[in-house]
Amino acid sequence: DIVLTQSPATLSLSPGERATLACGASKSVSGTYLAWYQQKPGLAPRLLIYDASTRATGIPDRFSGSGSETDFTLTISSLEPEDFAVYYCQQYGDSPLTFGGGTKVEIK
Amino acid sequence: QVQLVQSGPEVKRPGAAVKVSCKTSGYSFTKNYIHWVRQAPGQGLEWMGIIHPNGFKTVSAQKFQGRVTMTRDTSTNTVYMELSSLRSDDTAMYFCARRHVYGDFMDYWGQGTLVTVSS
């Protein structure tokens, strides 16, 4: 199984700051088949990015994804109040599908 | 608009089975697979399996093989996930999620069904 390790576990930032979240894979993710989700308390996850860098429908352009093989990054260029949440990466290049452990972006 | 609406919370005894439903609407039911993902309290996301709406193809994570059964009812556009031989560590929120047409990621999610396993 591909193990995804997200870092940091918690990111404490202020609104307007830039957030950089990392997702590392235990082996190369074929086809850059990596997605990012946002989850707020009590809600289902929301798709942000797929194919490592393609924004999902309706996602603001302050969210961007990059990376390949074993190293992937989600960047939020300027944090809005509604962006404070937990973020998960997920690989779909290999079965079983796996998720990272999550990064919590909290208000500093 | 695309919607996935799940059944209500369940409380089960260890050793019992639970069946969670996921009623879909707002798109052509036969076009998209449905994933099942669970989340234990305070924990991350765990993929359980996937079903094609024609019902002929299901794939489950090895961890759940032999315990999970995924089915569908095309007359009501509903997908079901049954988990048997429940243990306390099966206590979790269970989500259904639509597979995007481009790949095995999830573009629309149900609201989740809390399953509590307790004696």
Describe the 3D structure:
- The complex is a heterodimer of chains A (108) and B (119).
- By secondary structure, chain A is mostly beta strands.
- Helix content of chain A is 0%, strand content 55%.
- Chain A contains no helices and ten strands.
- Chain A has strands at 4-7, 10-13, 19-29, 34-39, 46-50, 54-55, 63-76, 86-91, 98-99, 103-107.
- In chain A, the strands form two sheets. In chain A, strands 2, 4, 5, 6, 8, 9 and 10 form a seven-stranded mixed beta sheet that branches.
- Chain B has 119 residues and is mostly beta strands.
- Chain B contains no helices and eleven strands.
- Chain B has strands at 3-6, 10-12, 18-25, 34-39, 45-51, 58-60, 68-73, 78-83, 92-99, 106-109, 113-117.
- In chain B, a hairpin with a 5-residue loop joins strand 4 and strand 5.
- Chains A and B meet through strand 5 and strand 9 of A and strand 5 and strand 10 of B.
How are the SSEs placed, and which strands pair?
The complex is a heterodimer of chains A (about 110) and B (about 120).
Chain A lengths: L3 E4 L2 E4 L5 E11 L4 E6 L6 E5 L3 E2 L7 E14 L9 E6 L6 E2 L3 E5 L1
Chain B lengths: L2 E4 L3 E3 L5 E8 L8 E6 L5 E7 L6 E3 L7 E6 L4 E6 L8 E8 L6 E4 L3 E5 L2
Parallel strand pairs in B: 2-11
Antiparallel strand pairs in B: 1-3, 3-8, 4-5, 4-9, 5-6, 7-8, 9-10, 9-11
Sum up the structure in keywords.
heterodimer; A: 108 residues; mainly beta; seven-stranded mixed beta sheet; three-stranded antiparallel beta sheet; 55% strand; B: 119 residues; 11 strands; 0% helix
Short description:
The complex is a heterodimer of chains A (108) and B (119). Helices cover 0% and strands 55% of the residues of chain A. Chain A has strands at residues 4-7, 10-13, 19-29, 34-39, 46-50, 54-55, 63-76, 86-91, 98-99, 103-107.
